[in-house]
Specification:
This protein has 228 residues and is of the alpha+beta class. The protein has seven helices and six strands, in the order E-E-E-E-E-E-H-H-H-H-H-H-H.
């Protein structure tokens, strides 16, 4: 959520628009944080930063957000553009998945949570790449589980073709293919899906996990035979 903060820059009153956190980095609750204080400062290279101290009303811990600020001079006014650089402190919590997923795809779980840790520490330039790698391990390990006789072919086929050639379930194919599109975009110099971000990628990965879980659960159900 974007909010406007008033602060002093070089002795002049200024307003800066920032993207306010919607989740507490300590307790992970969805919040509307209470602003405690803010200060702006320049580093040795004359780069402007804004430091904002918040209070979480769910756990009553305070945390700090640091934003880089680009001051754009236009017709006598400054129009600041801000980017969230880091949040501290962070209480990282791994994401848990259903046993049928965590037991079947340990590599996916490990890589996904490493990407989640990177995102938690505001390493936005590498977390998306990590989620993309986790997605590849999830889909390929799932396909190898379903088609063990085609393991080498699946390993050596690009992920998009694996989805097109080996997945028949319409819902899974839709979720997985879109997740790959957004995941690939995280690795490109110029991104195509400028209206999407890591949140959208994670949503599609979770949707992919859901449909894979449904397929595996259904297979388990089919093993139950009627007792006459």
């Amino acid at each position: 959520m974007n909010i406007t903060i008033s602060t002093s820059v070089s002795g002049n009153d200024s307003t800066i628009v920032i993207n306010e956190l919607s989740e507490c980095p300590m307790c992970k609750h969805a919040i509307k944080p209470h602003l405690l204080s803010r200060t702006s400062y320049f580093d040795e290279n004359k780069k402007l930063y804004l430091s904002v101290n918040y209070l979480c009303k769910a756990c009553y811990n305070s945390f700090m957000c640091q934003y880089s600020v680009d001051l754009i001079y236009k017709t006598g006014y400054h129009y600041p553009k801000t980017v969230l650089m880091r949040v501290a402190p962070i209480n990282f919590v791994t994401e848990r998945f259903e046993p049928i997923i965590s037991d079947s795809f340990p590599n996916f779980i490990s890589i996904y949570n490493q990407a989640l840790a990177a995102e938690s520490y505001s390493l936005s330039e590498i977390s998306g790449i990590g989620y993309r790698k986790a997605l590849e391990f999830l889909i390929k390990d799932f396909l190898i589980k379903m088609y063990p006789e085609k393991e080498e072919s699946i390993k050596n086929t690009v992920l998009g073709n694996c989805i097109n050639n080996f997945i028949d379930n319409t819902q899974l194919k839709t979720a997985a293919s879109r997740a790959v599109w957004l995941g690939n975009d995280q690795t490109h110099y110029i991104q195509k899906y400028t209206d999407k971000d890591i949140t959208d990628l994670k949503r599609l990965i979770r949707l992919t996990v859901h449909w894979i879980s449904m397929i595996l659960e259904t297979e388990e159900a089919e093993k139950i035979e009627q007792i006459k």
